[in-house]
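User: Fold this; tokens only.

Assistant: Input:
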Amino acid sequence: MARERFTRKRGPITLPETLDIRGGPKAVPDGLMRPWPPISDLDRRMVLASLDGGQHTYGPNCKALEKEFAAWNGNRHVLVCNSGTAALHMCLAACACGTGDEVIVPAYTWPSSATCCLHHNCIPVFVDIDWATMNIDPAAIEAAITPRTRAIVAVHLHGLAADMEAILAIARRRGLKVIEDGCQSHGAALKGRKVGTFGDCAAFSTNQNKSLSSGEGGLFVTDDPALLEQGKTLWYFGENRVPDASVEYHTYGMGWMYRQSDVLAALARAQLTRLDGHLAQQKANAARLTERLTGVAGLVLPSAPPGYDHTYYNYTIRFDMDALGHAADAKAMRDKLLAALRAEGADVGVWQGWPVPEMTVFRARNAYGKGCPWRCPYAGEADYSVEQFPVAKRHSDWHVGMTTPLRSPNGPEVAERVAAAFRKVLENLDQVEVRV
């Protein structure tokens, strides 16, 4: 027996009751979903032109990308670098965060949002996230501030801006710097203002998974010329010299060498010309998923507060384990649901399976060996017990997410099929629950 689900635009999708893990047909046919990013003739021409140009390190495409991204995002200064992680590290240096300084970071994010602090001998201090937005909870920040606190890392997760008005109010009151991690959120906005234009400086990524993709790469942005120069010290060997110095000069600092290659910058420039269209497709596909999954029992769908422009870098769904009767074994049940969804052909996964303070480097407090930087005489105590972050823990255990089904060249037909896979699995839980 089969259930029929009707769409206004495509007609009926028939959903057999037998899941693929029990021998039924897939909800998402093989070959329907196409990979990200789409490569065009413009991409090929610009990359080949860079190869033929002969300047393959920081070259003309790097400089052009800086100007073009600054114009697109609304920044005064942009420095292209080799990763979003490098850009975050440059932000720490730009904000004069140093040995023993504490930096507030959300407990649920990509590790680079926190390990960038370790790169500069700072101590990350974690605070819990807001359940609805999955971003840092501003209400938790104030209690985490100590005399050693230097900055707040405001991560705009999955394409949704953090609550920058509340974060900036705290930072101004307490004299703290604000670093925006926009690596997943190109084009995300709050009240018409794009992320990366609120804080003292910001980092973006152009890794292959990102909405602006060049394989690898990053962008350090700021409106402050002094912060630009300070961040630049990591970008090129850590070299400082007085303006009238000769070519023979001394290096001051470790010199992390974060420059970008001209070839990758050429690809990023070509992709930037289509970024607005790609973001529009992501949002349209996300809207179709939300339309088709609204009302499905057991699902908590992503959303955006009023005034926020969500770009849906990742469409993150939480399974309501309380409603499903699996609060006690939430992670195990989530993994069974994930396996069933993947068997149906839905390209979904667990983006981050645990809060960042639960990761080994923070549990062991041993980034550099011999307990450093936590055993540095300038460092204070840091408590990384996961019990402090119940929302981050619950989110980690309940969620799955997806990127490729939302991305160009995939259109609404892919979103329809992925939604069908979720409905099929959630309507046949008995087949999932008995799976060993």
